[in-house]
Design goal:
The protein is of the alpha+beta class. The chain has two domains: 14-168, Sandwich (Jelly Rolls); 172-280, Homeodomain-like (Arc Repressor Mutant, subunit A). It has helices at residues 120-136, 141-159, 172-189, 196-203, 207-218, 222-240, 245-252, 257-268, 272-280, and strands spanning 20-28, 43-50, 53-57, 60-64, 68-72, 78-82, 89-96, 98-102, 111-115, 164-168. The strands form three sheets. Strands 1-7-2-5-9 form a five-stranded antiparallel sheet, with helices on one face. Strands 4-3-6 form a three-stranded antiparallel sheet, with no helix packed on it. The relative contact order is 0.10.
Length: 281
């Protein structure tokens, strides 16, 4: 009789993944399916069970086929289209408190596509059980789903050859603190060249969660808040100074006078030169 025992080194346990499974859906393409661009405040895992089609993320379109897994970060506009000759069937997981960073990526940091043909049995096993637990909702099914999600994420990291890293969303208190820092920074430095990337580096936050957290904190995305702050100061300069529209545009940090004029009109309802004339009268 042979006996082999493997000792588990509990000292090497990884840090808990602070992510919450929001939903599990399964869909199959039918003739009445209308594809529309949409966003989610959570991350999504989109796994193609069968069929083929295309996936659109913002301004990019790429093909998807059986065993492809599309990972999409929060607040990223996307949709999918199926081929009539090969209808798409897929499972989608919505995950709160999670964003993905993809090592070695210079562009397309908001999504990634992996094909798990060689590991489809393991991946489909977890997805199928998640779907079954969600449908039947037996006692403690939430705990089962959450545990399965964490194991699935670890499996994905393994099969992606460590080219995928998981970034946890910060706790609400931490998020509020960092968002407060960002707000104060924008209020004081609105004339500088501020980007999402620079704000993310400053606060050590994933920029997609930065968008979600700051929008929840202020009601506006960081860039919209920046533009609003610039427009407010622009109104003040138009009312109280004799600066030209071009000078004010430069002072506020807009890339061009035309962009300032367009942004001002969208926000105020009239171009800056008309606002200046009315304020003087």
């Amino acid at each position: 009789m042979g006996n082999t025992r493997y000792t588990i080194n509990t000292k090497q346990l990884i840090k808990e993944i602070n992510a919450k499974l929001l939903y599990v859906t399964t869909s199959r393409y039918e003739e009445d399916w209308h594809s529309t661009m949409h966003t989610h405040y959570c991350a999504e895992l989109f796994y193609v069970i069968s069929g083929s089609g295309s996936f659109i993320v913002e301004d990019k379109t790429f093909l998807v086929k059986e065993n492809d897994l599309v990972m999409i970060n929060p607040n990223v506009e996307h949709t999918e289209k199926s081929l009539n000759s090969s209808p798409l069937e897929y499972i989608v997981l919505g995950i709160e408190g999670l964003a993905f960073t993809f090592d070695g990526e210079i562009e397309n940091k908001n999504y990634k596509v992996y094909n798990f043909k060689d590991n489809k049995q393991q991946i489909l096993f977890f997805l199928t059980i998640l779907l079954k637990e969600s449908e039947e909702q037996k006692p403690e099914y939430e705990f089962v789903c959450q545990s399965l999600l964490e194991v699935l994420l670890i499996q994905l990291i393994r099969y992606a050859d460590y080219s995928l890293s998981v970034t946890n969303v910060l706790l609400s208190k931490k998020m509020s603190k960092e968002c407060g820092i960002i707000k104060r920074y924008i209020d004081s430095n609105y004339s500088e060249n501020i980007t999402l990337d620079s704000l993310a580096r400053m606060t050590h936050m994933n920029k997609y969660y930065l968008i979600h957290a700051f929008t929840k904190y202020t009601g506006l995305s960081p860039i919209n808040y920046l533009n609003q702050r610039r427009i407010q100061e622009g109104k003040n300069l138009l009312e109280t100074t004799d600066y030209s529209i071009g000078q004010i545009s430069n002072i506020l940090g807009f890339s061009s006078q035309s962009y300032f004029s367009q942004s001002f009109k969208n926000a105020v309802g009239m171009p800056p030169n008309e606002y200046k004339k009315r304020s003087k009268n």
